[in-house]
Amino acid sequence: MFLQLPDWRDIGKKLRDILNPFPGDHGPSPEERLNQRLQDVLKGFAYFDTIDEVLAWSEDLVDPLQQANTPRLRRLSKTPQQSGPKSKVLLCHDYKGGYHDYEGVRSGPLKDELYNCEHLQYVDLFVYFSHKLCCVPPPSWTNMLHRNGVKVLGTFLVEPQTLNVDRILTLKDGKYIVAELLANMAHTYGFDGWLLNIEKRLASNSTKELVMFIESLKEALGGDLRVVWYDALTVDNEVRYQNGLTEQNLPFAKAADTLFTNYKWTESKLNETNGVALAHGINPSKIAFGIDVFAQNIGMPGRPRITFPPKGGGGTNTGL
To answer: CA torsion sign, 273 to 130 to 202 to 299?
Structure first.
């Protein structure tokens, strides 16, 4: 009997696919990433790939090109076209990785038609999203949105491949260092808060500390700046999307200003969320239900996402 063993290269590939949730994207080296980040300063971009980079940040390293300089204008409570109550709209910009040349402070003429944000009178919160650990909105976006009275949020994104996640809970003099840094970044770069998206279990199982981290970030931001929590990690320290407000994400939702749900909710989940929110003294308007307009239903397991249009998409994600 002859037993043929699998090729070691096949085994290695399978291991890479397990360890790397994006096996088709091997990406640049850390040195190449750092070099690109330094070059992007001249475009006005600021982002950070690792916890170490976040912890090394200080105001002294900020170039004026990276800072928004337009205060957010006060908007009317209602536009002339609105006769009744209005849903609050959170627009999450997730376009081809972000930080494109046309978003820079020195962008030139466009060769192709690219994404732009219209009807801003209906948008309450805008989140700039990219697959970096820490994403600061480009000042070109912040200035334009502030002229239209829209609050602009950056993204703090922990993905499965992110290292040293628990270091975000490091304390110094009784304060969460990363929370203080994130708040200082918002004040220094001139935007209005953060989306927190934690898509990985904490090694320390310290979800109660994570709630305190959110509260600390809110306090450090102060004023009317905002913290949005994305519906991923649960109080059981599992990444399990709830698609609404449940006991599994309730402490995070209470600590944050807004809960941004995953995209696979149902009408019954809407009603359940309303009941849970009212039972715990939460205004249901603090819950943003995700609608995916990037048409990402193809080939995805489980219940399809809520999309608009139902069989197509545009280029961003919108939470209503």
So the answer is: positive
Q: What letters, b where the CB count within 10 A reaches 16 and e where it falls short, cover 108-132?
A: eeeeeeeeeeeebeebbbbbbbbbb
Q: How far is CA 70 from the centre of its chain?
A: 22
CA angle 263, 267, 268 (to 5 degrees): 110
Nearest alpha carbon to residue 287 among 234, 239, 235, 242:
242
Q: What's residue 136's pLDDT? A: 98
| pLDDT (0 to 100) of residue 66 | 97
Torsion angles phi and psi, residue 267, rounded to 5: -65, -40
Query: What local confidence, expressed as pLDDT, does residue 247 receive?
Result: 97
List, in order, residues 6 or more apart from 266 with CB less than 8 Å away: 243
Average pLDDT per block of 10 residues along the chain, 320 residues long: 42 45 58 87 94 96 96 77 74 84 80 73 92 96 95 97 94 96 98 97 92 98 96 96 96 97 89 95 93 62 62 47
Q: What pLDDT is attached to residue 75?
A: 81
Q: Return all residues near 181 (Cβ < 8 A) that are at least 6 apart.
A: 54, 55, 57
Q: Which of 234, 242, 240, 227 lies closest to 273, judged by CA?
A: 242
- For 25-48, give the DSSP string: -----HHHHHHHHHHHGGGT--EE
**DSSP bridge partners of 162:** none
314 burial type by CB count under 10 A (0-12 exposed, 13-18 middle, 19+ buried): middle
d(CA 294, CA 219) in angstroms, rounded, equals 34
Give the per-residue pLDDT at 276. 96
pLDDT attached to residue 149: 95
Other Cβ atoms less than 10 A from the Cβ of 71: the count is 10
Residues 6+ apart with CB under 8 A from 105: 43, 44, 65, 138, 139, 140
